[in-house]
Design brief:
By secondary structure, this protein is α/β, with parallel strands linked by helices. The protein has 9 helices and 11 strands. Helix 1 packs parallel to helix 6 and helix 2 crosses helix 6. The chain is elongated and about 70 Å long. The N and C termini lie far apart (about 65 Å).
Length: about 230
């Protein structure tokens, strides 16, 4: 396939990216109206790590990592590499040597819906990665593709320069135009959750805080004692 390498795409504001890095993936997705999440099959190879950066996107042929080599040149401080393939692939397209080159350029980590390898080495060097598969299967460098074009993973469109946030819960994409708005909404949501957490610590129930008793009644859910329940069974 032919392709294109797009240089210097617009990016989300670095201050907004840094602010979003302070929130979890779940909070940010909820702040955007429960949108932006990549599928649950894309999992971290490490635990307790959160990465946020601007996307450099790669569209590759399955089992071929040529365009990742091309993408390294387009990556810089604060970026996060996002790699997808034209059809499903679990081959180990990315490993420790790529991570070494990207780490040198200040890249925050990798998101891919294909496979990676050298996971122990990646963890030891502190290079964060989220992938659909881990596989030792190698790849070739034979087919053209594209860098910094819109790509789709699990139904979510990711454009170069969009914000990617990833943690133990998964990965979320924030369109670059919505970065500031999402920061503000995430801040408001965390403040609300802090108030709820304090109420729960004082013993309040979610049933009362969220007015759910009335909802249960509307749905026909009844309270019965154990004897009433056992006595009413056929």
């Amino acid at each position: 396939m032919s392709g294109v390498i797009v240089t210097n795409p617009p990016k989300a504001d670095a201050g907004d990216v840094q602010a979003l890095a302070g929130y979890g993936v779940a909070t940010v997705s909820e702040a955007m109206g429960r949108t932006g999440l990549l599928g649950p099959e894309i999992r971290p190879i490490q635990q307790g790590v959160r990465a946020a950066g601007t996307a450099v996107t790669v569209l590759s042929w399955p089992g071929d990592n040529l365009m990742i080599h091309a993408a390294v040149e387009q990556c810089g401080e604060g970026d996060l590499l996002v790699v997808t393939t034209t059809s499903p692939s679990t081959d180990g397209m990315f490993g420790e040597l790529f991570a070494t080159a990207l780490h040198k350029r200040g890249v925050k980590g990798l998101i891919t819906n294909a496979g990676i390898r050298d996971t122990q080495e990646l963890r030891e060097m502190g290079f964060a990665a989220w992938a659909r598969a881990v596989s030792a299967q190698g790849t070739v460098k034979a087919t053209g593709g594209s860098v910094n074009v819109p790509v789709a993973i699990d139904g979510q469109v990711i454009r170069p320069g969009d914000v990617i946030l990833a943690d133990d819960d998964g990965v979320v994409v924030v369109p670059r135009e919505r970065a500031r708005e999402t920061v503000e909404r995430s801040e408001a949501r965390e403040a609300k959750e802090a108030r709820t957490r304090a109420a729960f610590l004082e013993g309040q129930l979610g049933l009362d805080r969220y007015n759910l008793r009335e909802k249960l009644k509307e749905l026909g859910v009844e309270y019965r004692t154990y004897d009433e329940y056992e006595g009413g069974r056929p």
